[in-house]
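=== RUN LOG ===
request id: a7f3
mode: sequence -> structure
chains: 1
length: 100
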Amino acid sequence: MTGLKRSSADLDPRRRRMLFRAWHRGIREMDLILGQYAEDNLADMDDPALDEFEAIMAEEDNDLIKWINGAEPVPERLRIALFEEIAAYRPDFDPVEKDS
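=== RESULT ===
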C-alpha cells in the first residue's frame, strides 16, 4: 500500500483534512493503519465518531504504535470502541513479489 486508493472529492472539508492527516503521520506504520482505516470508514462516521477519531489522531505516533501493538497498556481515555476497532484493524497491504 502506497497511499490513497479513493478520491476525497466526495468528502466534506473536515473529512478531507482528516484523511490527509491520517496518511501523513510521520511514522509509516501509523500512516498505513490510520490512512487505510480513514479511507475505509471516514465517509460513514457521524460527528461524535469524527471527534473521537480526531482525538486519537492528536496522540503522538510513538505512543499510538505502542498501544496498538500491545507494547504498553492503552490509557483509560482511549479505552473506547473506536480505538479498539482501529487497533484490531489490519490494513490491506499490497504483496511484495520477489524476483526469481
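=== NOTES ===
The chain has one domain: 13-88.
The chain has five helices and no strands.
=== END ===
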